[in-house]
Amino acid sequence: MKEKDKEPPKRYYRKRVELYKMIDKIKLWPSRNGRLHGIKTLEKLGEQVRITTHCDKTFIVNNSRNSRAARWLRNQWFGKVCPICKVPDWKLEKYSTTRFKRHYGSLLLSEGQKKD
After folding, report:
1. What 3-state DSSP class applies to 11?
2. In the prediction, which pLDDT does 109 show?
């Protein structure tokens, strides 16, 4: 069996996680005009997050569970990929197999927060 014939495994994450945790895991950002950007750096500032994309755009967003960006990431709504960020194909394939379920999947907890 060739590697190209092999289907990537599906990943399941909880639907109602904070935007910071979701973006930190996926490393993608949907802009308002429908482009998908790759994230270079991510910095949490209290209840806000400073995001820097690979096309050197920096902005601050609220760490919300039901914001436009969180909904677009969960529903995988985007028109095209940013030509400057150049998100690789393997990352898009991995993102396309990611599923968000309400009662099933990873809570995206950090190592210090893992349940005993």
Report:
1. strand
2. 73
